[in-house]
Amino acid sequence: RAVLRELTEMMMKNLDIPDTESLSPPVPSTYQKRYLKKIMDLGEGHFGKVTLYKYDPTNDDTGELVAVKVLKQESGCVAEGLMKEIEILKSLDHINIVKYKGCCTEPGRTEVQLIMEYLPMGSLRDYLPKTKVSVCQCLMYAQQICQGMDYLHSKRYVHRDLAARNVLVENNSLVKIGDFGLTKHIPEGEIYYRVREDGDSPVFWYAIECLKESKFSFASDVWSFGVTLYEILTRCDNRQSPPTVCCLNLHMRQFKYSTPLEFLIWPLYFIPPPQKFYEMMGEAQGQITTMIIIDLLMKNMRLPCPRDCPHEVTLDIMKNQSLLNQHCWQSLKFDPDFPVNRYGC
Ligand code: ADP
Ligand code: MG
């Protein structure tokens, strides 16, 4: 909320803020698979695949456009993950969170489809590199993400995968948070969720305490917000972005790569050793890479200031050294004597 306040103050100096009041609650409907007509693929992430369909029960092309998410692997426990995502999304209603429309299951089949509103401009990761976007607009997107996250946290959910690839663009003045596949509920009275289950994680967006102790809290989402803000301000320029292709299984401490390792080079955190060395390391490379990231973060190394980023943003939001010492990338101890950390989380 404090990040939101600061961003709003910065924006007030520059532009009118659009009305982002919540709209009326969604009316979930039952969808039948046979009326879904495929239009095109929209994108895929580490876990799911999203496709654009027209839902056209009257078969006269007057149907609505919907985005439909299915999982890439259809194993029992993975399908359970999508069911959880559906339950979470169903319970959310905010202008800056993608709207749930319904789900589609077929009798006798395990496949589940999540049906949501279609956002025509895709993710910020796809949109920003090919669109001319001013710093002011960037701050407006950041502000809207904060509003969505503030709402999500008010429902005691931690997103755990906040990144430009998971922020969807409705039009040039409205963005919405999507992908609740890793989202967890933090029960009242508790401050973090400790991840014990297997699964790949986007480590470059994770706070130190997530990497070291698998502890996820509202404050760790604030760290990921800082990385997302960095992505937005660099317009998701590939040369400056974290490697999205790389996911770490925190439990097993193993990396999985879907492209050649040379693409892993993210000069901001570390420069990987030559390919051959990686091959020789085998499975240990995951552990070593995590240790390198943790070590660099512990030495207080952080992402640099994006090129045309206003100084206030870098100083006040990302790396503030003020009295309160609150910024997105501060290290954090879960200490009941110091409850205020990373913007009061
Ligand atoms: P995963 O859980 O595999 O990461 P996501 O839910 O993030 O899957 O979706 C993958 C990609 O599909 C997104 O990065 C985005 O490009 C696209 N996408 C997802 N939802 C929508 C939507 N509602 N409208 C348009 N594109 C979408
Ligand atoms: Mg995703």
List the helices and strands and how they pair.
Layout lengths: L1 H11 L23 E9 L3 E8 L8 E8 L4 H15 L9 E6 L6 E6 L6 H4 L7 H20 L2 E2 L8 E5 L2 E4 L6 E2 L7 E2 L5 E2 L6 H6 L1 E2 L1 H16 L12 E4 L4 E4 L17 H7 L2 H15 L12 H8 L27
Antiparallel strand pairs: 1-2, 2-3, 3-5, 4-5, 6-9, 7-8, 10-12, 11-13, 13-14
Written description of the protein model:
With 345 residues, this protein is α+β, with helices and mostly antiparallel strands. It is built from nine helices and 14 strands. Magnesium ion binds next to loops.
Key phrases:
alpha+beta, three-stranded antiparallel β-sheet, 345 residues, binds magnesium ion
Summarize the structure.
By secondary structure, this protein is an alpha+beta fold. Helices cover 30% and strands 19% of the residues.
Mean pLDDT: 79
Main pleated sheet:
5 strands, antiparallel
Which percent band covers the strand fraction? 15-25%
DSSP, total strands: 14
Low-confidence regions: 17-22, 245-249, 251-274
What class do helices, strands and sheet pairing give? alpha+beta
Radius of gyration: 20 Å
Any ligands, ions or cofactors bound here, and which? adenosine-5'-diphosphate, magnesium ion
| Strand order within the widest beta sheet | 1-2-3-5-4
Q: Termini distance?
A: 9 Å
What string, H for helix and E for strand, traces the elements in order?
A: HEEEHEEHHEEEEEEHEHEEHHH
Gross geometry = globular
Counted by DSSP, the helix tally is: 9
Helix content: 25-40%
